[in-house]
Amino acid sequence: GLPADSTSFLGLVADDQLLISSGSTVEADVGIFALAANGQNGMTLNGVNILNNDPMGFIVIDSPSIVINGGSIQAPTGIELLGGNISVTNPSLVKTEFLFLDATGSIMIIGGGNGGGGGNGGGNFQVGNVTLTAGGDITLDGSAQNPSAGTSQNNSFIFNMTAANLISVQNLDFGGFATVNMTAHTINLAN
Asked: What's this model's pTM, rounded to 2 decimal places?
């Protein structure tokens, strides 16, 4: 197998669409675990758990379209989602110090609070520094479940959002972040 250290890399790349069965767990304890689907159908993950438990591990998902419904993504150092449009519903994004989403289109995160989860989705959002960058809109709706900042008691985390058009945020408490930055043509905040 690959050595469990920050220099190892494992990538799963599909020319068109990468499909992983619902309820599956895919784990690679390596420096960087990358998943990519290059076709316009992109990647849809329904209830899939993607894990990288290497102490310096990253998970990178790159596709023209990324849809994540439930499930969990877990990596100690960072989670990166790169694509055209990114949609994440009831994610369990845990045990990571850095979350980076970069979309040429729009980003939508629904139900990213601290209630439920436990590795099966349900909205765990325990992350450190967050950066969201979209060529279109960013929509965040905690669905009455507030994000939990960080993986420790450190309250120095920063949440950055930059969108070309609209940032819409509702039902989120950013109290666990030391700094929240938003840049867009229009910003709507509710609750």
From this structure: 0.86
